[in-house]
Design brief:
By secondary structure, this protein is α+β, with helices and mostly antiparallel strands. It is 28% helix and 33% strand. The strands form 4 sheets. Strands 14, 15, 16, 17, 18, 19, 20 and 21 form an 8-stranded mixed beta sheet that branches. Strands 1-12-11-22-23-13 form a 6-stranded antiparallel beta sheet. It has a 6-stranded mixed β-barrel with strand order 2-3-10-4-7-6. Helix 4 runs antiparallel to helix 5 and helix 7 packs antiparallel against helix 8.
Length: 418
């Protein structure tokens, strides 16, 4: 995973509100920090009814629309804010992400350049007159069987028509990620490197930017795919050397289901399928709303050990475990980790120390699972406050293990079924 939004918090909360409805701004900011986005948006909207050029409210209206994936609405707010302060970095940051999600890469490129993400800008520019994630028109849906499910699901893919690779499915990853050596082997295009943070244990690592001509999954060929590259040379699961990661940005292109219970990755054409099409055929369906920051940080509300409601990052890539969290959540909840059982764990940024935790229950929305395993020390500490709201923990693989997880990026809802 990666994160480039450290300046977002400083920018958002330092913009002067010119003493207009200062108390309302404060209330809205507190709601936002706690993850009550819609409630905060109502207050920002009320402020704009009285002061149409209140910059802070304009930016938050755009940001909340982006978090909830209402992209046209988000674009409108940010463009209005840009007219007031055209060089403000936080506006360029959000417009880059907005156009990126819309697959308008040429429009995104200058905004990435404006925030000094040169490699990302070059990658976006390389898609000039090229359709990203191109698929055949008659594509309906594919089902790809997991090679293994634990400690993480692995599927077989083919890159650039001839190079077979084993990829884990991990919503903690952003774009399709290729290991450095596999990217070279497959002759992927390369545009440069950025220093990335947000990995397990707070580690950082060089993250490359590139592009591949095709990825083949089953009988589906997806053309013109942006990628990241990462050193995964030491990553081996279940006897398989891992060549890459299927992350949230790739899953975003479909109505996607990670069916842990039946060992399947299901990718549906989201132009043909809707959330309700899946819902009618589900056993004991549970619907959970989520939001998404940056390009892949999906957040949903839940509890741990009957705590107050918190905001969790849904990152399915914590191998074999259900939960990790920052120190602040340990303090709030009284969670106990076993200090005498230190283990060396491996994440995308390298090795870090971790400590096991036994967890009585975790709830995500209305879905509750008992007797789970967690690990302290694995939380990517940079994300706790970097988005302007508090991220209290990370919920992962073991929690979802007996479910089918469908992710709908149009409705911004999870569907969990048994």
């Amino acid at each position: 995973m990666k994160i480039y939004s450290k300046f977002v918090v400083m920018s958002l909360f330092s913009i002067c509100c010119f003493c207009v409805k200062a108390q309302s701004i404060k209330i809205a900011n507190n709601l936002f920090k706690n993850g009550d986005f819609y409630e905060a948006q109502e207050i920002y909207s009320d402020i704009l009814d009285k002061d149409t050029n209140n910059l802070k409210s304009l930016i938050f209206m755009g940001y909340i629309s982006l978090l909830t994936n209402r992209l046209e609405e988000s674009e409108k707010w940010f463009n209005k804010a840009k007219k007031i302060k055209p060089k403000l970095s936080v506006i360029n940051y959000f417009l880059a992400e907005n156009y990126y999600r819309q697959k308008k890469f040429e429009l995104a490129a200058p905004y990435y350049l404006a925030i000094r993400r040169k490699a990302m800008a070059k990658k976006m520019e390389s898609f000039s007159n090229i359709e990203p994630y191109k698929m055949r028109i008659d594509f309906d849906a594919i089902r790809i069987r997991f090679i293994i499910t634990d400690p993480l699901p692995i599927v077989e893919v083919i890159i650039n028509s001839e190079y077979k690779g084993y990829f884990i499915i991990d919503t903690g990853g952003g774009e399709l990620i290729l290991s450095d050596d596999f990217a070279k082997k497959t002759k992927a295009e390369f545009f440069g490197i950025e220093k990335s943070c947000g990995f397990g244990g707070g580690k950082k690592a060089p993250l490359g930017h590139g592009k591949i001509s095709t990825i083949t999954l089953g009988n589906l060929i997806v053309e013109n795919v942006p990628i990241n590259t990462l050193n995964l040379n030491q990553l081996e699961l279940g006897g398989y050397k891992i060549d890459g990661i299927i992350g949230t940005v790739f899953l975003y292109q479909f109505l996607s289901t990670i069916d842990y219970k039946n060992g399947l990755l299901i990718l549906r054409n989201k132009a043909k399928y809707r959330f309700n099409d899946i819902l009618v055929n589900c056993s004991s369906p549970k619907i959970i709303p989520f939001t998404m920051a940056d390009d892949h940080f999906m957040m949903a509300k839940g509890t741990i050990n009957n705590s107050d409601t918190m905001l969790f990052f849904v990152d399915t890539g914590l191998a074999g475990n259900a939960f990790t969290c920052p120190k602040s959540t340990i303090r709030k909840t009284g969670l106990i980790y076993q200090k005498d059982r230190r283990t060396k764990s491996l994440g995308g940024g390298g090795h870090f120390n971790s400590y096991p935790m036994e967890i009585e229950n975790i709830c995500l929305g209305d879905v509750c699972v008992n007797k789970l395993h967690g690990v302290y020390g694995a939380f990517p500490v940079q994300i706790e406050k970097s988005f302007g709201f508090n991220v209290n923990g990370l919920i992962s693989h073991e929690f979802f293990r007996n479910y089918s997880l469908t992710i709908d990026f149009v409705e911004m809802k999870y569907l969990l079924s048994e």
